[in-house]
Design brief:
Number of strands: 12
Radius of gyration: 14 Å
Low-confidence stretches: 1-19
Order of helices and strands: EEEEEEEEEEEE
Shape: globular
Number of domains: 1
Strand order of the largest sheet: 4-3-8-11
Amino acid sequence: MRPEPVIAVEPRDAPAATIEMIPCGYVRTSTGAQMSLDESGKQYLVDFRINGDSYTPTFYHISSNCICRFYSGDGGRSGPGMIVEAHGPAEDNFGEKKAVQYKCWIRT
């Protein structure tokens, strides 16, 4: 029997939208913890949170089948500002940039 996919729903999108989570890579926190970057689709921004607490990633690794965009929280009235678009395979440090949200999708 095939296992059911993991479905995540952002509270602001429930119950209208569900997102099937597929790994697109990972980020590392300042403490060295490695957190999965799940496929969200082009239209959904995902906050960097663990159990409701936000964290700031310092490094990213993107799988070869994905594209990810990372956003800062200081985009002003126009919304979050994009700081990096990475086409996998890719990895780098965020440096001085502070990513607070991301979106990743499967390359077509």
